[in-house]
Amino acid sequence: MKKITKFGEASWIIGNILCAIGNCLVSKSAFGLSAIIAPAFILNRKIGFLTVGVCEYIIQGILLAICCIVIGKFKGKFIATICNILFYGACFDIVNSLLSFLQPTDIFPRIIIAAVGTLITGFAIAMMLRTYIPPSAYEIFVKEIAEAKNFNMAKMKLIFDGSMLALTFILMFMLLGGFFIDIIGPLTVIAAFLNSVLIGFFGRILDKHVDFSPAFPKLYEILNPKTK
After folding, report:
1. Which residue, of 36, 58, 124, 190, is most buried by count of CB atoms within 10 Å of its CB?
2. Taking Cα atoms as reference points, which of 29, 19, 16, 42 lies closest to residue 187?
3. Residue 174 to residues 35, 44, 50, 179, 184, Cα–Cα distance (Å)
4. Which of 113, 131, 176, 163 has the alpha carbon at shortest distance from 15?
5. Which backbone phi and psi does 4 adopt, to 5 degrees?
6. pLDDT tens for the 228 residues of the chain, in order
7. pTM (2 decimals)?
């Protein structure tokens, strides 16, 4: 079977859309959220007129600003990260609006929605990891600080994930006044162990069938100046 070629930019677009769909489905299962996206949902629940997408703008914007302060500069490629933040947030709000009818209460439909959402999210992340376009502020934060401070990437990721989980607990109790299982629940724990497996599985399939080279080489050169 012939590979799909020059999919570098399309993978970024499709990956963001699928990630929004997956995260939206997971949120509607009410079994818990990834600690990475949970703060945006907490902020949305506290300040109802701010959509989850807008809350993502705020949280990822703060992370990107902290990243720039820590590494001591703003890189040109961060403009693409800002575009990523804006695009994902808009996608999530659109998907959330389209799926507003989906409010399952029975356990089995919730399990199905959670499973489908988790699978879609894993596939989406595997796809976005293969594009040359800078990812969300969450990934940029870990990568840039680890490189600038000569930290081990895996340890930095572990510290970051733990910090986001701690932040989620703090925000839950500070802003919402208690513990909510639909924010930190069984799926939060399951996803923490399952996501890397799913991302690796889907990544291997994608590598067999898709060529992630750029369709727009000039854009690639702009975002990856060291490769010139």
Report:
1. 124
2. 29
3. 16, 14, 18, 10, 15
4. 131
5. -75, 130
6. 788 888 989 999 999 999 999 999 999 999 999 988 999 999 999 998 999 999 999 999 999 999 999 999 998 889 989 999 999 999 999 999 999 999 888 999 999 999 999 999 999 999 988 888 888 899 889 889 988 988 887 788 888 888 998 999 999 999 999 999 999 999 998 887 888 889 889 999 999 999 999 999 888 888 877 644
7. 0.89
